[in-house]
Amino acid sequence: MAWVMHRSSSDGGSSSGWSDAAAAVVAAAEERAGWEVRPSGMVVQARDDAAGSGGAPPRPPPPPEIKVRVKYGGARHEVSVSPIATFGQLKKLLAPRTGLQPADQQLSYRGRARGNAEYLDACGVKNKSKVALAEDPASVERRYIERQRNATAESANRAIGAVALEVDKLADQVTSIEKSISRGNKVPEVQITTLIELLMRHAVKLESIPAAGDSSSQKNIQTEACMRAGEAGAEVRGDAGRAQGVQRAAAGGGGDDQMGDVRRGGHHDEVGALRLRSVQCSRALQPRGYVYTCMVFYFLVSPGFIWCTLLNSRVVINHVR
């Protein structure tokens, strides 16, 4: 403004108009000192350099941390935490020191259990304040139930595994017997029947095992395997019975027609074996039956003949007299 006044004095009165225009420009510049023009051409209030990048005043510095004394059983822990933190954040700081997960912790201050969303300063927690830590009762019950469930599952798995091992051994025996019969070897029927009974007992034992979840599916699988092995054993017993019937029929046949009829009933080998035994018994009893018949006829008919003879003789004697 002083420079404008100096120019006007040097030029004389001829430049008075120019000095008035300059003064108006300077006044407008001073008036717009608190404004700025954006690239879009909009005039807005100038930002203060002391303000933050978002135009808001700078945040105040965080409050100093406080030390909270936490009692957990017979142990004492001192934790540095912000006073504006929550009890949930305090639990996270205590987790590595106590070995308890935040979900399993229960913090109490001034005799009241505090929630995870409650703030320390709002509850009156200050420096050197004492907070009690205990295990959440719901968490204790939940872990107890989980331990019981795991123990039951482990017991069921052990029992199912033991039965499955025995079933596998019996199934291998059934397979070996089947191969032996297919090669023409004789296998006692009692042995096959014993295997089948053992398989059925193991199936009943599997059904009596309490199981749930994966153990239940495993039990069902082993039960089906046991039943399949039992059915295979029954088929092997039938094959063995048919083979023995054919061998017996062939051994006792010779050239007889009745034995040939028995052998021709191959699909009823067991029935044929029974018929064969009955035929053999009847043949063995034929001579004895003939003798028995003659003896019966003699003892029944002879007394009557003798009695008739004696009666006729008496009639003749009386007539002569």
From TrEMBL:
The chain crosses the membrane at residues 290-311. One of its GO terms (cellular component) is cytoplasm. It comes from the Eukaryota. One of its GO terms (molecular function) is adenyl-nucleotide exchange factor activity. GO terms for biological process: protein stabilization. SUPFAM superfamilies: BAG domain, Ubiquitin-like. Residues 64-133 form the Ubiquitin-like domain. InterPro entries: BAG_chaperone_regulator (IPR039773), BAG_dom_sf (IPR036533), Ubiquitin-like_dom (IPR000626), Ubiquitin-like_domsf (IPR029071). Keywords: Membrane, Transmembrane, Transmembrane helix. The keyword Transmembrane helix applies. Residues 10-23, 241-250 have a biased composition (Low complexity). Residues 1-23, 237-266 are annotated as: Disordered. This is Ubiquitin-like domain-containing protein. It comes from Zea mays.
